[in-house]
Amino acid sequence: MHEKVSTVLLTCGALLGGVLVSAPVANAMAPQGPSCVARHAARADDPGDNDPDSPTPSDQAVYDAESEAGLAAKGGHADLAAGSVNVPVYVHVVTDGAKGELTKQDVADSMDRLNKAYAGSQAGAATAFTFTLKGFGTIDDAALASITAPDGEQANAQQRPTMTALRAEDSDAATLNIYVVPNVLDEHGKSGNIAGYATLPQWYRTSDTNDGVVMQTDFMLSTPANTGTLPHQVGHWLGLYHTFQGGCDAPGDEVDDTPYQADPTSGKCPEGLDSCPAPGEDPIHNFMNDAASGCRDRFTPGQAQRAADQWVAFRQRPELDKGKTDLFVIGKSGEATAGKHLAYTFTVDNGSTATATATGTVLQAGMPAQLSGLTVSGATGCTINDAKIMCPLGDLPAGDSRKVTVTGKIAARATGGIQASVAVADTSGNATGTRIVNIVTASTDLRATVTSTAPVRRKRVTYTATVTNTGPSDATGVVLTLTLPVQTTGTSRVAGCLVRGAQVRCNWPALAAGAHRKVTGTATVKPATKAKTAITVRATATSTTADPNLRNNTANNTSKVK
Q1: Pairwise CA distance, residues 502 & 391, whole Å
Q2: Are the C-beta atoms of 131 and 113 separated by less than 8 Å?
Q3: Is beta strand 371-377 parallel, antiparallel or unpaired with respect to 401-410?
Q4: pLDDT tens, 42-81?
Q5: What ranges does the record give for the region Disordered, renumbered to this chain (predicted)?
Q6: DSSP state string for 73-99
Q7: Over the stretch 230-275, which tens digit does the pLDDT of each residue have?
Q8: Which of 151, 157, 195, 380 has the most CB atoms around its CB within 10 Å?
Q9: Is residue 117 scored above 60 in pLDDT?
């Protein structure tokens, strides 16, 4: 029988924001320490800092494009009545001797808890989902008693012996396999930190044998202090993110009626928390938060709708199975230069392994916000809504491909990386996507001009040089060099510039687009200079910012000595 622990286990969110982390606490009312919250600091697009249930912003953008394409291929947002979708469930319990045992009643209680959560019991919204236990088995095998939580989609595609050995043979994307093991290991191979994890629905196409929910044995039990872990993980399996996904930044968890939340909730049920400037207190009672398990008891209507949408886009069984499609999309682009046009070419292919026509194919692209004036070629009937493009491509026979080109102008002052996310889907539920990341090269056009007063022997002549940045980008590391005629001497000092003989060199850290700098200096025409001698002063402007037009970077002024 399962041995009860003497301390109450509170869940302290994901180790890195996604997989649930367990933390033994002597007093369930005591708040958890700062080390727990620190694990959930805002995460950048670092593949090594990824986890299954809290994708990086880049991955999230691709998943969103896949979801939108999948829904568009099937006619738009899901319209599923409460309780209308029954999910078959197989529970696989692995023990290591006496460690990890669960009874059939334990599993039945867990299923009851799961159904109540998704039926909208207590204060929560009703969802479309019910769950029926189709199979339950226990195997005593030390070699299968540990599962390592992946740190992202690619890692999840690696072989996991427990899942490969136990997965129900008739499983498909709409079948929930739950693996209950004594040890859920973190990336360092240690157990005791992670209560469970789930795979996102988008991952099924790359690793169907690893699809499902993994639970550490203690957290599968139905106890008053542990009512939220299983509904939480199944929520991820249905496509729900944490309520603190992305912190206070859009798009958050993609659900309108869950307030933004900076970090997972620490402590048991700390009412009144408000960690973001956007309206609404932190949803501490939401199943997709990481508050103490007994504190979580509800989903919102928006989460119910998102779960239904994700189901239709990725997990719903097709009505007819007349073959297999093999959709994929390849994206390419040219060099990204600020202020210039950039063209993306998306090639949609129903690949060589396809045995069926991809019907109702849809391409969905999320273009960088730094692009304007978007146009589409290669497809008809496309819609452009802000930075999102949807193109119906119709039927795509096996082995065929289509190309769609999207062009836009990069903002003049765009800098750093920009990302386009593109996905393609058909009515069979096949959806796949990718992203294209460009580093924007700043582009400027410096123009130099120079004038002088009439040169007279033994007299001072005044030179004025100007550098103008005609844009589109700001220029950095700007240098204006003024080279005076050899027929002059006694070059005057110029404030902020270095004077060496007949050369004046001026430096500025930056010159904004549309701005200019002017330099004025004097020199004496040498007495030996003959009248009517042509003398020339030259001004040259350079910068560390790319300047594709160098023809106007140098200016000369020639005049005859009187």
Answers
A1: 63
A2: no
A3: antiparallel
A4: 333 333 334 567 888 888 888 888 989 888 888 888 889 9
A5: 38-61, 542-562
A6: HTTSS----TT-EEEEEEEEEEEBTTB
A7: 999 999 999 999 999 999 999 999 999 999 999 888 777 888 889 9
A8: 195
A9: yes
